[in-house]
Amino acid sequence: MHRTRKNMLTEWWWTIDRPMLVALILLLFFGLVLSMAASPAIAMKLNLDAFHFVKRHAMFVPVALGIMIGVTFLSPRGARRLALFVLVCAFFGMVLTLLVGGSVKGAQRWISIAGFSLQPSEFMKPAFVVIVAWLFAENDRRPEIPGNLFSIVIFMIAVALLVAQPDIGQTVLLAMVWSGLFFMAGMPIFWIFLLMGLGVGGLTMAYFFVPHVTGRINRFLDPASGDTFQVDTAMDAIIRGGWLGVGPGEGTVKRTLPDSHTDFIFAVLAEEFGIIACMVLISVYLFIVVRALKLALQTQDLFKRLAISGLALLFGLQAVINIAVNLKLMPAKGMTLPFISYGGSSLLSVALTMGLLLALTRKRPEIGMEKRQFFKPYD
After folding, report:
1. For a tag site, which of 66, 86, 158, 323 has the least CB within 10 Å?
2. Distances, alpha carbon 350 to alpha carbons 45, 167, 212, 338, 341, in Å
3. H helices of the chain, where?
4. pLDDT of 303-335, one tens digit each?
5. How far, in Å, CA of 187 to CA of 199, rounded?
6. Where do the TM regions start and end (predicted)?
7. pLDDT score at 143
């Protein structure tokens, strides 16, 4: 038994992509440090213990790490089965949220389970990517199976549930990832223009019929048309921080912004640690995404190539959107910074995302080869 466990762990160590694993653990560490910097001021404003959010974030970090590491042991088939299970549970949870979930700032996205607020849509995203990638791959491998049609149906279900909450930011993110996968799977030119038209039409309808979307876009285009306090303050904090920052604990943005520990934690980083620290963080995100896409190109299995690429896009685009909002380059969307922002559902879902990615990028020694540098993809 001991020998079997030792062999399994040894094989895992030599087949996992260690540079990416180290980069992800580094992000988890960054998130904990920034939680200590950004959240005490918010907790005290809410008459909570100063380290209330820090303690909760610290509690979720080992759970997230455990989920990420545990999922990496799965084979591609095991990853697909887990994704299907999570997707079904997430869809059920999203429906349940619409029926009995609590409303926060006009949106019904959370449901309380055992005293914890859970956001099912966060867990839906990585599972959706893996299942859709598998459907596209099956459609290519066996044309008699309407994988593309099934992927469209699942996409429409996911979009309908997200819009009902409403969560336009996550809808846009999911649509971008799904469109990217469809394109990589060999989408005909007709579908490209059709999806572009549907995307423009959907955003137009959201602007005219979803009040909070209308307000956010209007404030982005014309700041004088409404309250832009959060984005203006975040931008001022970034400018104030300069290259090296004002120093840990010396920032002011966290004392005034209600979302400084979640959506605007990047502004806290910029103000207290400076633009150089922000560039380091962005470099870590860029390294992870580029390395994942490189590994995707190296695999011959279409399912793994699409799934790895989709998970990398999901991870990278979420980071880009959050940072762009902080820099006033996009309307506010209420999207967290992966592994950095406070939030249990976000942290655990990103851990699931990257666990699936690491599982699909694992390699193993060729049979009969003793040197560790000879690897081939998992079957």
Report:
1. 66
2. 28, 18, 26, 6, 11
3. 2-15, 18-45, 52-71, 76-100, 120-141, 147-164, 168-184, 189-209, 211-221, 229-241, 253-256, 265-298, 302-326, 344-361
4. 999 999 999 999 999 999 999 989 888 877 778
5. 16
6. 59-75, 82-104, 149-168, 188-210, 264-288, 308-327, 339-360
7. 79
What whole-number distance in Å separates Cα of residue 240 and Cα of residue 234? 10
- Within 10 angstroms of residue 12's Cβ, the number of other Cβ atoms is 14
Q: What is the distance between the alpha carbons of residues 12 and 10, in angstroms, rounded to a whole number?
A: 5
CB atoms within 10 A of CB 299: 19
Q: pTM for this structure?
A: 0.88
Using the predicted structure, report yes or no on whether residue 78 has a pLDDT greater than 80: yes
Average pLDDT over residues 57-77: 94
pLDDT of residue 226: 57
Q: How many domains does one find in the chain?
A: 1
CA gap 187, 193 in Å, rounded: 10
- The identity of residue 242, as a single letter, is G
27 inside domain: yes
As a whole number of Å, the end-to-end CA separation of the chain is 25
Q: Tokens 């956010």 — which residue? A: 216
Is residue 197 in a domain?
A: yes
Structure tokens at 280: 């380091």
Range of the domain at 61: 19-99+110-360
User: Is residue 204 in some structural domain?
Assistant: yes
In angstroms, rounded to a whole number, what is the distance separating the alpha carbons of residues 329 and 221? 10
